[in-house]
Specification:
Elements (H helix, E strand, L loop, with lengths): L2 H10 L2 H28 L15 H26 L2 H6 L4 H32 L1 H5 L3 H26 L10 H9 L5 H5 L3 H16 L44
Helix pairs in contact: 2-10, 3-5, 5-7, 7-10
C-alpha cells in the first residue's frame, strides 16, 4: 500500500483507535522485551516461581499439569493461528473447514483444561494458609489479567460457535497482528473483528506488558544446560574398590 492510502486511512481513525490498535501493541512489545532484559539483568534472584509445593501438594499435583499442558496448547494454537496465513495451510492440503474444526476442538479442550487447572490453583492459593500468605499484590493482579484474557478468548470462541456464527479470525485478527509485526499496522482489519475478539486482544497486550514483572518470567527459564551437562559418575564405597580405609568403629558387619 502506498503512502497516500495510509494518510487517508489515518485521517479516518479516532484517537481511541490509534491508542488501542497502534500505540498499545508497540508499547506492550517494547515493555515485554526491555522489561525481561531489565528483570534478568538486575533481579536474577527474583526470577523465580516462588514455589509453594512444600505447603500443599495434593491440589498442586492436580491443578498444575492441567494448567501448564493446557496453556502450552493454547500458546501453540495462537502461534499457528496468528502467524501462519490461511493460504499456507490450504497449500499443504488443510482446507478451511478442517482447520476450523481442529482449531475449535483443540482450542475448547485446551481452554477448558487451562481454566480448570487455574481454578484449582487459585482455590489452593486462597484456602491454604501459608500459600495465601505468600501471595503478593503483584500475584493477584497477574491472576486477574491472565484469567481475564483466557476467559475472553475461551468465551468468545465457545459463544460464537454455539450460536452458529463463528468468526474467521484469520481474515481479521491474524493479518492485523502480522501487519503490526511488519510495522505497517492495518487497523481496518482489527476494527472488522467482533467486540469479543477486540477485548481479548486488548487484555492480551496488557498482560504482555505486565508479564516481565511477575512470576510468569519462569516460562523462559528452561534448563537447557542439562542437555549438554556431563553425566555424573557414582562410585562404590566398597572398601575393595575405594581408596579410603574404614575408620575404627565403622567396619562393616559381615
Amino acid at each position: 500500500m502506498n503512502t497516500t492510502y495510509y494518510a487517508a486511512a489515518a485521517e479516518q481513525l479516532t484517537t481511541i483507535d490509534i491508542l488501542l490498535w497502534v500505540a498499545l501493541p508497540y508499547a506492550s512489545i517494547a515493555i515485554f522485551l526491555v522489561g525481561h532484559y531489565w528483570r534478568y539483568r538486575y533481579d536474577k534472584f527474583g526470577w523465580t516461581t516462588r514455589s509453594s509445593q512444600l505447603y500443599e501438594n495434593r491440589l498442586l499435583r492436580l491443578g498444575s499439569p492441567l494448567f501448564h499442558f493446557g496453556i502450552l496448547l493454547v500458546i501453540l494454537g495462537h502461534i499457528v493461528g496468528l502467524l501462519i496465513p490461511e493460504g499456507w495451510t490450504e497449500a499443504v492440503g488443510i482446507s478451511e473447514p478442517v482447520y476450523h474444526a481442529l482449531s475449535v476442538g483443540l482450542g475448547v479442550l485446551a481452554g477448558a483444561a487451562t481454566l480448570i487447572g487455574a481454578a484449582i490453583l487459585i482455590y489452593r492459593r486462597r484456602t491454604t494458609g501459608p500459600v495465601f500468605s505468600a501471595t503478593t499484590r503483584n500475584d493477584k493482579i497477574m491472576y486477574v489479567l491472565l484469567i481475564g484474557t483466557l476467559v475472553l478468548g475461551f468465551g468468545t470462541t465457545v459463544i460464537s460457535n454455539a450460536i452458529g456464527q463463528p468468526h474467521d479470525y484469520r481474515q481479521t485478527v491474524s493479518p492485523w497482528f502480522r501487519s503490526v509485526l511488519s510495522f505497517r499496522p492495518d487497523t481496518d482489519l482489527i476494527l472488522a473483528a467482533p467486540l469479543g475478539f477486540q477485548l481479548h486482544v486488548i487484555a492480551a497486550w496488557i498482560l504482555f506488558a505486565f508479564w516481565p514483572f511477575t512470576r510468569l518470567v519462569h516460562v523462559f527459564s528452561m534448563p537447557i544446560g542439562y542437555l549438554t551437562r556431563p553425566y555424573i559418575v557414582y562410585r562404590s564405597r566398597d572398601v575393595e574398590l575405594g581408596s579410603r580405609r574404614e575408620r575404627r568403629g565403622w567396619e562393616r558387619i559381615q
